[in-house]
Amino acid sequence: MASSDIYVAKESFATELDGQSVIVQKDVTRVRAGHPLLKGRENLFELLSVQYDVEQATSKPGEQRGAPTAAERRETKAAEVKAESEVVVEAEAEASEE
Fold it and tell me: What's this model's pTM, rounded to 2 decimal places?
Protein backbone atom coordinates (compact mmCIF):
# COMPACT_ATOMS: atom_id res chain seq x y z
CA MET A 1 0.00 0.00 0.00
CA ALA A 2 1.73 3.15 -1.23
CA SER A 3 0.90 6.36 0.61
CA SER A 4 -0.45 7.89 -2.61
CA ASP A 5 -2.86 5.01 -3.32
CA ILE A 6 -6.57 5.77 -3.33
CA TYR A 7 -9.18 3.16 -2.39
CA VAL A 8 -12.86 3.02 -3.31
CA ALA A 9 -15.61 1.26 -1.37
CA LYS A 10 -16.65 -2.12 -2.82
CA GLU A 11 -19.94 -2.05 -0.93
CA SER A 12 -22.07 0.39 1.04
CA PHE A 13 -21.99 0.28 4.82
CA ALA A 14 -22.32 2.39 7.96
CA THR A 15 -19.69 2.52 10.68
CA GLU A 16 -18.39 4.67 13.47
CA LEU A 17 -15.11 6.55 13.27
CA ASP A 18 -13.81 8.69 16.13
CA GLY A 19 -17.27 8.67 17.73
CA GLN A 20 -18.96 9.88 14.54
CA SER A 21 -21.35 7.90 12.34
CA VAL A 22 -19.96 7.49 8.84
CA ILE A 23 -21.93 6.33 5.80
CA VAL A 24 -19.80 4.76 3.08
CA GLN A 25 -21.28 4.39 -0.42
CA LYS A 26 -20.24 1.72 -2.89
CA ASP A 27 -18.22 3.13 -5.83
CA VAL A 28 -18.53 6.66 -4.37
CA THR A 29 -16.55 6.84 -1.13
CA ARG A 30 -12.81 7.15 -1.69
CA VAL A 31 -10.07 7.18 0.93
CA ARG A 32 -6.31 7.52 0.77
CA ALA A 33 -3.98 4.77 1.90
CA GLY A 34 -3.49 4.93 5.65
CA HIS A 35 -6.85 6.59 6.32
CA PRO A 36 -8.41 5.45 9.63
CA LEU A 37 -11.55 4.33 7.78
CA LEU A 38 -9.50 1.61 6.08
CA LYS A 39 -8.10 0.14 9.29
CA GLY A 40 -9.83 -3.18 9.92
CA ARG A 41 -12.08 -2.66 6.88
CA GLU A 42 -9.55 -3.27 4.10
CA ASN A 43 -11.77 -6.03 2.67
CA LEU A 44 -14.52 -3.45 2.02
CA PHE A 45 -12.28 -1.34 -0.24
CA GLU A 46 -10.29 -1.90 -3.41
CA LEU A 47 -7.47 0.01 -5.01
CA LEU A 48 -8.86 2.64 -7.37
CA SER A 49 -7.51 2.23 -10.88
CA VAL A 50 -7.30 5.47 -12.84
CA GLN A 51 -6.55 5.48 -16.55
CA TYR A 52 -6.02 8.81 -18.21
CA ASP A 53 -6.41 9.47 -21.90
CA VAL A 54 -3.00 10.71 -22.92
CA GLU A 55 -2.13 12.23 -26.23
CA GLN A 56 1.34 12.67 -27.52
CA ALA A 57 2.41 16.27 -27.03
CA THR A 58 4.00 16.54 -30.46
CA SER A 59 4.63 14.16 -33.29
CA LYS A 60 8.18 15.33 -34.02
CA PRO A 61 10.93 16.91 -31.94
CA GLY A 62 10.67 20.69 -32.09
CA GLU A 63 7.17 20.68 -33.57
CA GLN A 64 4.66 23.01 -31.96
CA ARG A 65 1.23 21.55 -31.37
CA GLY A 66 -1.83 23.67 -32.05
CA ALA A 67 0.05 26.83 -32.96
CA PRO A 68 0.98 27.67 -36.52
CA THR A 69 4.66 27.94 -37.28
CA ALA A 70 6.20 31.25 -38.31
CA ALA A 71 6.33 30.04 -41.93
CA GLU A 72 2.63 29.10 -41.83
CA ARG A 73 1.76 32.53 -40.40
CA ARG A 74 3.76 34.25 -43.18
CA GLU A 75 2.03 32.14 -45.86
CA THR A 76 -1.39 32.95 -44.43
CA LYS A 77 -0.61 36.66 -44.23
CA ALA A 78 0.75 36.68 -47.79
CA ALA A 79 -2.42 34.97 -49.06
CA GLU A 80 -4.59 37.51 -47.20
CA VAL A 81 -2.64 40.46 -48.63
CA LYS A 82 -2.83 38.99 -52.14
CA ALA A 83 -6.59 38.46 -51.85
CA GLU A 84 -7.09 42.01 -50.56
CA SER A 85 -5.01 43.47 -53.39
CA GLU A 86 -7.00 41.51 -55.99
CA VAL A 87 -10.23 42.93 -54.54
CA VAL A 88 -8.81 46.47 -54.72
CA VAL A 89 -7.68 45.98 -58.35
CA GLU A 90 -11.10 44.64 -59.31
CA ALA A 91 -12.83 47.55 -57.59
CA GLU A 92 -10.57 50.05 -59.36
CA ALA A 93 -11.23 48.36 -62.71
CA GLU A 94 -14.99 48.51 -62.16
CA ALA A 95 -14.78 52.16 -61.12
CA SER A 96 -12.80 53.11 -64.24
CA GLU A 97 -15.35 51.40 -66.50
CA GLU A 98 -18.14 53.59 -65.14
Answer: 0.51
